[in-house]
């Protein structure tokens, strides 16, 4: 049965590892996912959209794990090791992976969500966070970011994702990047 696993690598080496895996494994053997997120960054009062890794140092793979696949992965690249639980490769729980796949849609990118202010609370009306409001820990209107809580292999991570707050009076995006 195919399941999702995480390979830990040196931060900044995720793309390189993903390409190596795609060369050494055929698509039927292994699927690679390196989730990313769109956010807004401010630099000298200028706002620009940036794409950042969702989990720096992590490369997700979907495969039918066996000894051969395990050893090929561990010997393929010096900065890559499968995350483990005890002595076995750690399987990403289905519910954890379902959230990541839903947030990224049919790609590897979590785009911007749109929200409106309803009595001081933000209601998500569109985008990847719609239906996942329970993941939101905090919204930073100035930075156009929502801090969400994601669990991966028993590890809780707080991650910033992009959000646009729409002014309901004139349908303009507040704090727009443009």
Automatic annotation (TrEMBL):
Q: What SUPFAM superfamilies has UniProt attached to this entry?
A: N-utilization substance G protein NusG, N-terminal domain (SSF82679), Translation proteins SH3-like domain (SSF50104)
Which Gene Ontology terms describe the biological processes this protein takes part in?
A: DNA-templated transcription elongation; transcription antitermination
Instruction: Alphabetically list the UniProt keywords.
Output: Transcription, Transcription antitermination, Transcription regulation
Residues forming the NusG-like N-terminal domain are: 1-104
Highest taxon above the source species: Bacteria
Q: Which Gene3D superfamilies match?
A: 2.30.30.30, NusG, N-terminal domain
Q: Which CDD domains match?
A: KOW_NusG, NGN
- Please give the name of this protein: Antiterminator LoaP
Q: Which species does the entry assign this protein to? A: Aceticella autotrophica
Lineage of the species this protein comes from: Bacteria, Bacillati, Bacillota, Clostridia, Thermoanaerobacterales
* Gene that specifies this protein: loaP
